[in-house]
Specification:
The protein has about 290 residues and is α/β, with parallel strands linked by helices. The protein is about 40% helix and about 20% strand.
Length: about 290
């Protein structure tokens, strides 16, 4: 694409028309399952404004023409979805799930002749990495507390946004992001930067090496991920899809979940009246039947 220098003021004046919004929202829903009702027009315009600046474009009409061009479909689509996708997460978000890991899921998976084994987990919709790193910390703590239960583990972490996956794989966060963690966990699993003006922390290498980060679109017909999994976390992601899409996504995830494996949803999500192979154990905690 040939870029020209344009007046920055012209870029800031760009306004998305209803027709342009309809075309973009239909594409985003059709390709990625993300609902874009009319009330999100201002939000979409604001988020894509950065792309107009970076591409030196003065109108959303020009941007849409580029997006749907052959080059745009190969290059720009990933940048666009990075801007559109919502990524909000925290360390140890919804702690009841990690309590259940310690009290029920891990003891059961490691009972009887199933010790000395590999536990495989999938953080589906991992955002910037706080969830898979929290899972990793939880499993390390369980190992320490139960030395006779010999096991190892690995975590697959997927998201549609390449931007947040880059942050996740680096494992570097503002120090404020981990203020809520107990001091003993900070000492064991976090490395502090020496920069006092912009303090950051980094997840220790032993946790980072156990997690494989990959890009995945929930709207794909099948999920090309390795292996099958003992535990899948898919929390606070499905709320952005309609119910039909939610059911399809859960079934595709469950195809990669081992029989009797554990499935975790977010606190505001439900499988009520869904045709999915899950049995509820507790609110937002399920088992594959």
């Amino acid at each position: 694409m040939t870029q020209q220098n344009v007046n920055l003021g012209d870029i800031y004046k760009a306004v998305m028309t209803s027709e342009e919004f309809s075309r973009l929202s239909a594409f985003i829903y059709g390709e990625y399952g993300i609902k874009m009702p009319e009330v999100k027009k201002t939000m979409l315009q604001s988020r894509l404004h950065k792309r107009l600046r970076e591409l030196n474009m003065t109108s959303y009409k020009d941007y849409i023409e580029y997006l749907f061009s052959k080059e745009g479909q190969q290059i720009e689509v990933i940048h666009m979805i990075d801007m559109v996708s919502t990524n909000k997460t925290d360390f140890f978000r919804e702690p009841v799930h990690f309590d259940f890991l310690h009290s029920h899921a891990l003891p059961e998976l490691l009972s009887g002749d199933r010790s000395n084994r590999q536990i495989k987990l999938w953080s589906a919709g991992c955002s910037s990495g706080e969830e898979p790193y929290t899972i990793s910390i939880s499993l390390c703590e369980f190992m320490e507390q139960h030395p006779l239960l010999a096991f190892d583990y690995s975590i697959l972490a997927t998201d549609i946004s390449t931007r947040v996956l880059k942050t996740a794989s680096e494992g570097i966060y503002k120090e404020a992001r981990v203020e809520m963690l107990p001091l003993n966990l900070k000492k064991k699993y976090l490395l502090r930067s020496k920069d006092k003006t912009s303090p950051t922390i980094r997840i220790i290498p032993d946790l980072r090496r156990r997690i494989n980060f990959h890009r995945l679109n929930f709207m794909d017909n099948a999920y090309n991920v390795p292996d099958s999994y003992d535990i899948i976390f898919c929390r606070n992601v499905l709320i952005y899809f309609d119910r039909e899409t939610q059911e399809k996504v859960i079934n595709r995830l469950c195809a990669k979940l081992k029989p009797n494996g554990f499935f975790f949803l977010g606190h505001s999500e439900s499988i009520t009246n869904f045709n999915v192979p899950l049995k509820q154990l507790k609110p937002t905690i399920f088992r594959k039947i």
